[in-house]
Amino acid sequence: MDSLIEKYHHRLALTDTAFIRSLADRIDWDSRLIGIKGARGVGKTTLMLQYLKHNYGHSDAALYVSLDNMWFADHRLTELTDNFVKHGGKHLFLDEVHKYPSWSQEIKNIYDDYPDLQIVFTGSSLLEILNARADLSRRADIYHMQGLSFREYMAMYHGISLPTCSLEDMLEHHTEISVDVTSHCRPLQFFADYLQHGYYPYYGESPQRYPIRLEETVNMILEIELPLLRGVEHAYIHKLKQLMQIISQSAPFIPNISKLAERIGVSRATLTSYLKYLEETDLLISLYKESGGMTVLQKPEKIYLENSNLMFVLGTDRVNTGNLRETFLANQVSFEHTLKYSSTADFLVDDKYTFEIGGKNKPKHQIQATENAYIASDDIEFGAFNRIPMWMFGLMY
Question: 2-145 belongs to which homologous superfamily?
Fold first, then answer.
């Protein structure tokens, strides 16, 4: 255990707290059991260490451990917890819990056996809190973390602080928001860079290696997390990569499930399940019809990569502009809102707002007869009436 404590203090000393993600303000840190889910590389570990450094420093009352550490090959989490509590520990932060086979059962036992101990854990987007052997859904407050918003990218890499705007504020006051933002910067100067390499926080560590590292991130999710947590056969991983490349180059991708299943060599039901798994890993965003609830076997009407940065890694120089724009909006809006397929435009948001996506000269005739309909236009700083600058949707968190 001493080696774990030593590594924790070393990592804490190296943790930079200059920029902290907006999710930190949304988490109820007083809760006894907190779970943070998210795709590999979005910054879950950094968020935990920043909170620890800011609130506890190097106090013995708190401890961070990653459950993929070799120490756990010969020791149990319950053993570490008992030792930690007996020495005055109050706050236990557990990283990469999905790497530990009996994580859900042991965390449940720890939660029940040590009522004065706070537990914060992180894991893959594929973590099943409800269906795990030990149901943690009634005990844990679960938060989902995704990559940097355009607003966070501006703060982290350019030192420019922009306001957070709700969707409703944007729809009603986008002109005032544009005036405020353009008094600080020219958003279009930075927006294209964000779309290509601004989503994952590790870009700043080595900009030259970013495409390589992002591709490694995708491979780790496909080759390790999907087989481990969803039982996807390794023989089909290459086919799933090919599928993601097709999606990245489409405008956007409208799937023919039967033909795709035949091409990959699986049943229609299996392919639909695989698409659902890719959505759960934060590699895809699927849009379903306006009517009816989503089921595991329901066919998606449109499929996007989860964020625009993935398009440049998987689609190379064949990125479709229309797909790029829709991917950005789908990613940013779906974080806090329900996004569905629309038969009359590109998106239906919260069963209320209709959005058509395009460039600065995108015509309005397609949505003229639709109530609560808006155009998200690229390449403009200011909108007018129901035309809203596209970059503004990157201020939502």
Answer: P-loop containing nucleotide triphosphate hydrolases (3.40.50.300)
